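Re: that backbone. Tokens:
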């Protein structure tokens, strides 16, 4: 490499179109090494690396014999600086707390924001594709072999998602349901010329209910023309053209939601295998019908105890692509990324509540004083009432006496008998 020995990662790829896709993503977009691990310059030629792999040079034959039994190595190489560890290792070995998870997600979101600013969809955001740099301990994205250029609606060109995929991190719009034998045969015919690894990858997964296969699920993937990783082979495509999903930011947004859920709960959103593909047709069934059972989603999201984090994941995992907010707006405004704003808002709220409580206290004190005045007035009125009652009784007694005297008939009570008649 021209500057002495160093630790590097040599990614050997079997699929040439995926290798071309990664090379094009790096050549045609100004990717900042702060966010994406850069390819190293001055590496051996494509042919030299292919010959070295075939001949087992550089100790590769020993590695193949001891560690890569029955694993076919690719001959298309990509050479990068070696990272400290990937996010999967970080999460399981370092067990980050909520603040560390916030720091991790902020870095990943910033990296994805950078890609989107370059009109590039990553297409495969997961723990294994995020590494920590030995230079500054910052997180970087790797593996752009599932990437695609984002073309606005109405543009002169069109690009699609799904040429390469990890199905457990894909959004619902990327899942296709096959219900008829004819559709299944059409699907298998489209892929019949591909190698066994790819056919196994895209193979329809049965959805069973009470032991009976009700349907099969597949990813809306497609074959590509040789040397043109973004151009689908439309002939024989087992879906209508419009059912292919255009490359967009919303694909990455869903994957960010899956990643956040995993980091915040320690669980996979959808049951998956080691390749981050859906473990079964039943798992793909959950994705296909995402959002149709709100109580199930509520139970799932309640596993996230931090309220702001729960809201972030809920916004990202919206069924409708248009309802998923852009990365830039989340980084700028979402409370999960700005706990200091929440603290300041809470302090303001506490201050406001304190003022209100003081006002209430003053109001209660005033009301207490008013009640005391009313109580004293009541006592006075009560006392006056007793005096009035006594006065009324006395008045009644006098009046009755006067009435009796006024109506009294006076009659003689003594008689005197005289012998002689009194003179007139």
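Recovered sequence:
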């Amino acid at each position: 490499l021209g500057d002495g020995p160093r630790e590097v990662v040599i990614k050997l790829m079997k699929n040439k179109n995926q290798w071309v896709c990664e090379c094009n993503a790096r050549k045609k977009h100004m990717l900042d090494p702060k966010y994406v691990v850069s390819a190293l310059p001055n590496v051996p030629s494509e042919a030299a690396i292919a010959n070295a792999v075939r001949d087992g040079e550089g100790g590769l034959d020993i590695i193949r014999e001891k560690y890569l039994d029955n694993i076919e190595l690719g001959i298309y190489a990509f050479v990068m600086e070696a990272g400290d560890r990937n996010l999967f290792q970080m999460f399981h070995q370092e067990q980050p707390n909520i603040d560390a998870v916030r720091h991790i997600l902020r870095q990943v979101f910033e990296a994805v924001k950078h890609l989107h600013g370059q009109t590039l969809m990553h297409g495969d955001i997961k723990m294994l594709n995020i590494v920590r740099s030995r230079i500054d301990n910052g997180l970087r994205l790797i593996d752009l072999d599932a990437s695609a250029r984002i073309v606005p609606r109405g543009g002169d060109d069109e690009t699609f998602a799904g040429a390469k995929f990890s199905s457990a991190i894909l959004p619902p719009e990327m899942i296709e349901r096959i219900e008829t034998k004819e559709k299944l045969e059409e699907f298998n015919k489209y892929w019949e010329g591909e190698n066994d690894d790819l056919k196994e990858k895209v193979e329809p997964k049965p959805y069973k209910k009470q032991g009976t296969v009700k349907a099969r699920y597949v990813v809306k993937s497609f074959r590509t023309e040789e040397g043109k990783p973004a151009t689908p082979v439309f002939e024989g495509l087992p879906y209508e053209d419009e059912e292919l999903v255009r490359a967009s930011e919303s694909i990455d947004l869903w994957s960010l939601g899956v990643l956040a859920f995993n980091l915040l709960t320690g669980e996979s959103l959808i049951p998956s295998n080691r390749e981050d593909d859906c473990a079964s047709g039943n798992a793909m069934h959950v994705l296909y019908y995402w959002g149709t059972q709100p109580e199930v989603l509520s139970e799932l999201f309640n596993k996230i105890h931090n309220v702001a984090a729960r809201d972030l994941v809920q916004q990202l995992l919206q069924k409708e692509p248009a309802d998923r907010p852009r990365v830039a707006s989340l980084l700028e405004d979402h409370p999960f990324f700005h706990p200091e704003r929440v603290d300041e808002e809470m302090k303001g709220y506490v201050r406001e509540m304190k003022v209100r409580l003081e006002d209430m206290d003053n109001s209660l004190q005033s009301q207490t004083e008013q009640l005391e005045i009313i109580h004293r007035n009541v006592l006075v009125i009560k006392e006056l009432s007793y005096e009035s009652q006594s006065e009324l009784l006395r008045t009644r007694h006098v009046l009755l006496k006067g009435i009796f005297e006024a109506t009294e008939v006076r009659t003689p009570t003594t008689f005197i008998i005289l012998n002689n008649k009194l003179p007139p």
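The chain is about 45% helix and 10% strand. The two ends are 173 Å apart (CA to CA).
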